[in-house]
Amino acid sequence: MIVFLNGQFVPEAQALIPVSDRGFLYGDGLFETVRVVNGRPFRLAQHLERMMRGADFLKIKCQFTPAELQKFAGQLVEQNKMPEAVLRVTLTRGPGERGYTPQPGSQPTVVMTLHAVSGAPASGTARSDPSLSQAVPEAGAPIRWRLITSSFRIPAGDLLSSFKTMSKLVHVMARREAVEKGADEALLVNTNGEAVETAGGNLFWICGGKICTVPTSCGALPGITRAVVLEICQTLGLSVNERVISPEALQRVEGIFITQSVLGIVPVAVFDGEPVAPSPLVGQISRAYGEMLAKP
Known about the structure:
Elements (H helix, E strand, L loop, with lengths): L1 E4 L2 E4 L10 H5 L2 E9 L2 E2 L2 H15 L7 H15 L4 E8 L16 E7 L9 H4 L6 E2 L4 E2 L2 E10 L14 H12 L4 E6 L4 E4 L2 E7 L2 E4 L10 H13 L3 E3 L4 H4 L4 E6 L3 E8 L2 E2 L4 H15 L2
Parallel strand pairs: 9-10, 9-16, 13-14
Antiparallel strand pairs: 1-2, 1-6, 3-4, 3-5, 5-6, 7-8, 10-11, 11-12, 12-13, 12-15, 15-16, 16-17
């Protein structure tokens, strides 16, 4: 595997990062996960725009422009001959002295890697029951997930929630909790008791024939696939409502689905042990998303 590291394309075994890198030491950095389809990283420009906004907020000066990173990403896909893949872009503050205080003049670390596309849910349970299957065109496999409410909480009003930082320990632990309970994904609730997002994606639900999602002001990451779904709803003439919801109220909705960059749109089959009826609206949006992915 060839990887991109600070302007160079090198074999993975030679892509070495100092142990003093602040991304390793403190999670002091950002990352983006991008689906590559037919050799094209889908919505890469939007991913990089979010990363650069995060870099400005964290005061990390990336040595490459978004246009340069897009060019490097295309070259990485070509060199690895992986037209169907997952691209990860990582930006850290770079090596530095021990301690929380960032040192001036640090040289950021930029890494891009490619990974095989995996459509398997976290626990493997959702796929084992054929009755829970619903086509997800962009993943090429039938997936409907079991979702549980995590005991871990995220802070309401956290300014960092607008960016995909490398500090994802709460999400890691929530996903582990889900797997231990035989589920595929975890719902994260904020300190106000509001449903916010899942460990790896944004939350949508159907209520009164409307497509609903959580406002990002509650602490949800402004996901790129979330934005694409909002575009699709506008194109299809579907009503959208951004509002807060509790996990208890979420059990009474007409359908639930999760959006994320790798799998796109994943319907939820079971939430906190209770079945969730499939909504035809989810299938309609999923088909439109698959068609968008397939466009050159």
